[in-house]
Amino acid sequence: MSAAAASEASYVLGSDAIERARLERQHAIWRDAMLRSWDQAGFGPGQRLLDLGCGPGFASLELAERVGAAGQVLAIDSAPAYLEHLEQQLRQGQFPQLRTLQHDLASSSGVLPSGLEESRWDGAWCRWVAMFLPQLEPLLDLVSQALRPGGRLVLHEYVRWDTFALHPGGSALARFVERCIQHWRDHGGDPDVAQRLPALLEARGFRLLHSSSLMACSPSDHPKTQWLLDFLSSYPTQLMAAGRWSAAEQATLEAELAWGERHASLWVTPALVELVWERP
Fold first, then answer.
1. Enclosing domain of residue 78
2. Alpha-carbon span 131 to 139, nearest angstrom
3. Nearest to residue 13, comparing CAs of 188, 177, 238?
4. CA triple 18-176-13, angle to 5 deg
5. Which uninterrupted H or E stretch holds 266?
6. What mean pLDDT, rounded, does the chain reach?
7. Cα(176)–Cα(251) distance, integer angstroms
8. pLDDT tens by residue, 177-221
């Protein structure tokens, strides 16, 4: 397996067109929370910002619009398919302040990749990336080296993924959630990664400026519920391919979800937190 293929494989949700479309819908649903967190961090015109684990670049384009022509955005990801998708958007010439960099954020070389200058960046945005990394030190070391003193790091990460639930009922969903967690841990991920981040960042001298919960409890017709259902329509295939989920279990889950959509139900997201840190 090539280095690029290995880094793509570490993202267990995949990087094909179906997953890219799901990520686009996900970005739209969580866009307002993202923009508020950027406001909280003071991201604005003329700044130099990093999009860490940019995926197809939906947030990267928003960052480029925010910093304007006088700013700069570097979108970093390990998946060539995602970076090529973003490059296609950039060929239209709308955002010359945005460029891409292929780099594995789990790489432990200890040296900043070419094009990522030390102590020159005003801020970094990182959403749902740390949970998939088998080791966090390369990512945190990169941020420590790249941000200037006073630079801001904005993280959206899960602190308890097992809060994902449906009430009433939800026993099949609970089994599915358990299998997802096992699958990610088997690949070196940590769906509760936000529990570890404060100690690791504090040890590097970072100061926590802001924290809040983004967890949601919604009825069936709410966008956050549709986000959950979108994931539940796509990921069982991968769990079954990994031998962690059966066709019979899937049938039971689908019946349970259909019942939940027809009746008054509470759909609870995994516990997600927003963290804003400042580099010393």
1. 3-278
2. 11
3. 238
4. 30
5. strand 266-268
6. 93
7. 12
8. 999 999 999 999 999 999 999 999 999 999 999 999 999 999 999
Give the separation between CA 2 and CA 274, rounded to whole angstroms: 34
Query: Do 81 and 16 contact (CB within 8 A), yes or no?
Result: yes
The pLDDT of residue 13 is: 54
- The residue type at 11: Y
The first and second tokens of residue 163, run together, are 């809060």
Q: Are 228 and 269 in contact (CB under 8 A)?
A: yes
Q: What is the CATH number of the domain that holds 227?
A: 3.40.50.150
Q: Which helix (H) or strand (E) holds 99?
A: strand 98-102
How far is the CA of 155 from the CAs of 62, 92, 214, 248, 259, in angstroms?
16, 30, 12, 37, 35
Encoded tokens for 98: 């945005």
What is the number of domains present in the chain? Answer: 1
Would you say the C-alpha torsion 265, 165, 163, 231 has a positive or negative sign? negative
How would DSSP label each residue in 4-29? HHHHHHTSTT--SHHHHHHHHHHHHH
pTM for this entry: 0.92
On the 0-12 / 13-18 / 19+ scale of CB atoms within 10 A, 115 is exposed
Burial 26-49 (b: 16+ CB within 10 A, else e): bbebbeeebeebbeebebeeebbb
14 Cβ neighbours under 8 A, 6+ residues apart: 238
CA nearest to 274, candidates 130, 156, 152, 131 = 156
Pair of tokens at residue 241: 């391919």
Instruction: Copy the structure tokens of residue 97.
Output: 């302040």
